[in-house]
Amino acid sequence: MLERARCLDVGDPLKEFRERFDVPEGVIYLDGNSLGCLPKATPERLEQVVREEWGRDLIRSWNSAGWIDLSSKIGTKIAPLIGARADEVIACDSTSINLFKLISAALAMRPGRKVVLSEPGNFPTDLYMIEGLERQGLTERRLAPREALADALDGDVALLLLTHTHYKTGELFDMAALTHAAHEAGALVLWDLSHSGGALPVDLNGCEADFAVGCGYKYFNGGPGAPAYAFVAERHLKAARQPLTGWMGHAAPFAFSDDYKAAPGVEKLLCGTPPILGLAALEVGVDLVAEIGVDRLYEKSQALSEFFRQCLSERGVVLDLVSPTDPDARGSQLSFRHDEAYAICQALIARGVIGDFRDPDILRFGFAPAYLRFEDMAEAARHLAEVLETGEWQCAEFRQRAAVT
Ligand SMILES: *Cc1c(COP(=O)(O)O)cnc(C)c1O
User: Fold this and answer.
1) How many helices (H) and strands (E) does the chain have?
2) Largest CA distance in the chain
3) In terms of residue numbers, what domain contains 325?
């Protein structure tokens, strides 16, 4: 298996990109879907921003280094990777905050309708942000399992909010079909692309999506807590009004007027002063993804995950796969259900194979293809097989839950 893996690595068109990341020695990193690896260019870029732009040029850098436009600039770079136009995307705030802004905007655009529809088991923050608005009396949360979503789209639904690639199972929604169904019912759609952006091709405009949000620190390798991004379809840019009317979203922030007037474009999604250090790191990650291309990334991640499954099966490992078996029906991850998923995950981490655990019983492996090799798949499968065979996960040390799982 290892030999076959090495042959595949030799023929891998993305093989030179591993060098562009700082992948720690002795680690097989299968968690790039949670926190992407550090691009080697990032520390250098941050050093430059800190020492020259901040340290030497100080306040002048808002103009001279283009800080003031950095959110928009990164938005224009993310746009083609998610099927959007350059003026429809902006990098700002966190995914959670962008959800709040865009759910609110959508509700205001559908007066007389109050329901935000989602699925149970959607990423918690998506559901909680709807709940927060519900507590303020601004909406009513409705959850329907995926097979019942189309039926739940009645005349009360203002917005359908879904995560394109499910964070636990990796299952993909049919973005075009659901967007169409929502529009037929008179509702708007907001797609959470956190596990899709930078991992697989997304065609927001091809699907006629209304709104989208996504994460900067997962497949975009922007670093811990990196700014997120938000998309508003061009046809809604005029009507969409977001509630966090901070000065940076003003049409003329430096006019210092007493009254708020939203910027005409997607800049209206800005709220406060942008975090330049975070944005600078994000830009490096986005540039790398753009250089490689999302089509090539997805193709390789599918090959990696299929090869991983093959290695497991050749080692006789039988695990309950909760991700779709068809690679076209899932994002860049594989998830398995096991009662001892937590302890198994810890035992693997002790061996240098970093995947993650999702409560209550999911063992999740992400395949960020820019820096993973087929060799890593063969080795990870070997470690997993050994952990299961030896039962080493039963050690007490692997059962202690840390704060972040
Ligand atoms: C990771 C993730 C988020 C993260 O939101 P933050 O505000 O960055 O913490 C949101 N939604 C989904 C679907 C995610 O996977």
Assistant:
1) 12, 13
2) 69
3) 2-30+293-398
Share of the chain above pLDDT 70, in %: 100
Using one digit for the tens of pLDDT, what is the confidence trace for 389-400? 999 999 889 988
* Residue 273, annotated as binding a ligand: yes
CB 195 within 8 A of CB 167: yes
Compute the 3-state secondary structure of the chain and give helix, strand, coil in percent, each to the nearest 5.
45, 15, 40
The reported pTM is: 0.97
pLDDT tens by residue, 39-73? 999 999 999 999 999 999 999 999 999 999 999 99
Same domain, 18 and 59: no
Residue 269 · residue 232 · CB < 8 Å: yes
Kindly give the distance from the C-alpha atom of residue 145 to the centroid of ligand 1, in angstroms, as a whole number.
20
Is there an atom of ligand 1 within 6 Å of 96 CB? yes
Q: Ligand 1 centre and the CA of 192: distance in Å?
A: 8
Asked whether residue 335 falls in the same domain as residue 278, the answer is no
Report how many domains make up the chain. 2
Mark whether 115 and 260 lie in a shared domain.
Answer: yes
Q: Is-cis flag, bond preceding 124, omega within 30?
A: no
